[in-house]
Predict the 3D structure of the following.
Amino acid sequence: MRLNGFERLVVNNPVRAWLQHHFETPRLLEMGGRCDGELALEIGGGQGEGARVIQQRFGASEVVSVDLDLAMSQRARQRCGETPGLHFIQADCTALPLPSHSVGALFDFGVIHHVPQWQDAVVELDRIARPGARLYAMEVYRALICHPLWRRVLEHPQHNRFSHDEFIEAWQQQGWQLLGQQTLTQGMGWAVLEKPR
Ligand SMILES: C[S@@+](CC[C@H](N)C(=O)[O-])C[C@H]1O[C@@H](n2cnc3c(N)ncnc32)[C@H](O)[C@@H]1O
């Protein structure tokens, strides 16, 4: 689901980039470590800062950053220029143009809660992940998405949303193992999981 005008402003600005670098990245690195030399996939890459973080801070050699919204992919490409190793393409995270078992690190900076049938995204990401791949995720949960105040300003699917535990369970059902987790109230959290080798 594409962002409404307000959320577009929330994610397309320097404050969001600062938060990704200084608030989210340290947590995810502490839980899951770096992914040096890996091919990484970022879903819902937005303005492109996540791809920079994945290359510079996590050490991925190549980053494929997909976004459902063509305008977002174009903005990311403009912001990041022709940085070698960063690739921005328009694609849906439930139908990725990547071969099975090809990716060593998956990044979800607040995207899966935008997918109406979010369980399909989990199955698709599991398909393209190689054995031993890691998922680094920051997610937003039912408690926040379905809160009357947030519903007034942000636009998200309201049915079939998930809690932190339900998000982790969906990955565990695919066989993934939890390496670390942290929540910030019931509305937001981080998790790193690993696909069995
Ligand atoms: C909340 S924004 C997060 C953007 C960026 N990851 C960040 O942290 O700033 C969610 C992004 O996911 C994209 N998106 C929504 N549904 C998607 C889908 N099914 N597949 C790929 N991207 C999707 C939106 O266009 C938007 O850019």
User: Anything to note?
Assistant: The chain has eight helices and seven strands. The radius of gyration is 15 Å. Residues 1-3, 11, 16, 43-46, 50, 66-69, 72, 92-94, 109-111, 114-115 surround S-adenosylmethionine (CB under 6 Å).
